[in-house]
Amino acid sequence: MEKHVKLEILDKIAIVAIDRQEALNALNTELIMELGAVFDEISKNDSVGCVIIKGEGKAFVAGADIAEMLVKNQEEGEIFGRDTSQVFLKISNYKKPVIAAVNGYALGGGLELALACDIRYASKKAKFGFPELGLGITPGFSGTQRLPRLVGSSIAKEMIFSSAIIDADEAYRIGLVNKVFDGENLFDECLKLAKKISENGQIALEYAKTAIDDGLKKSLEEGIALENKLFGMCFATEDQKEGMQAFLDKRPAVFKNK
Ligand code: CAA
User: Fold this and answer.
1) Contact present, 163 and 120 (Cβ < 8 Å)
2) Residue 55 CB less than 6 A away from ligand 1
3) Between the N and C ends of the chain, which has fewer C-beta atoms within 10 Å?
4) Interatomic CA distance for residues 63 and 127, integer angstroms
5) pLDDT digit string (tens) for 58-103?
């Protein structure tokens, strides 16, 4: 039974709520291990089409737990960063899309968690930043790698080197978040997107995520070859026949995800 991470499955949507409000949802070892276990559970549930991660209370996640980190030595620091990055890889490598609903502070490890998601929707109250250098450490949960890949190295360097905290509009301007909403609409908008995603053909959805994520690690030619293979594989599915027949019949498709 998880203490700080709650999982709810609502139709085909898995909602992961981080709840350690007394520390603004800061990530301690226990919470991080729970998050990994929750994603293991979600991965076994084939009915899930999309995941939403949200923070309870006024923060998304205010970073790694500073009190826990204070006493760590070099080896322990390295293990903490490695183990958490493995959990975040579990999230980014999960076969279905993951949406971060960023309702408040997403700082340090909290921003790194949002960066491990496929899509970020933010409330107008959200704040983003990497305060690590002000604490005498580098980002340690893959932020130095994920941020420049998303917003470019120059903007990433400015954010990480300065520890500046930016608001939701600035995060939108630099491409860190996909959309910004009034706080009260944020979760409903995430649900709307998750519903739309989970109603699509699920095999094609998995192939599309693989094509984008694995393709970005390859040359353009190799990425196109990967797309070509996955595109061809779609034609071996019942979903492709159903999706196209439904279009020609002018009716909604009923995918069996086969
Ligand atoms: N770790 C541990 N505790 C934290 C925390 C964190 N990252 N962030 C907040 N808290 C705790 C505070 O200590 C406080 O606890 P007490 O009530 O027991 O004093 C409680 O949460 C509420 O926080 P504040 O009173 O500070 O709330 P605020 O509204 O005045 O300020 C804030 C909010 C600006 C987010 C401020 O809490 C803050 O600066 N937090 C730290 C943010 C940070 O530096 N994050 C990066 C951590 S390093 C990291 O993440 C490394 C990595 O990449 C792996």
Assistant:
1) no
2) no
3) N
4) 12
5) 999 999 999 999 999 999 999 999 999 999 999 999 999 999 999 9
Residue 210 CA to ligand 1 centre (angstroms): 35
Residue 132 bears catalytic tag: yes
Is 61's C-beta closer than 6 angstroms to any atom of ligand 1?
no
Atom of ligand 1 nearest to the CA of 64: 50
Q: Quickly state the pLDDT bin for 1 (edges 50, 70, 90).
A: low
Is 70 near ligand 1, meaning CB less than 6 Å away? Answer: no
Please check whether residue 177 is in contact with residue 186, taking contact to mean a CB–CB distance below 8 angstroms. Answer: no
Q: Quick one: tokens of 91? A: 């999230």
> What does the alpha-carbon distance between residue 87 and residue 21 come to, in Å, rounded to a whole number?
21
Closest to 213 measured CA to CA, from 48, 94, 120: 94
Cβ–ligand 1 contact at 24 (below 6 Å): yes
φ, ψ (nearest 5 deg) of residue 143:
-65, -35
Give Cα 187 to chain centroid, integer Å.
15
158 included as an active-site residue: no
Q: Strand, coil or helix: what is 251?
A: coil
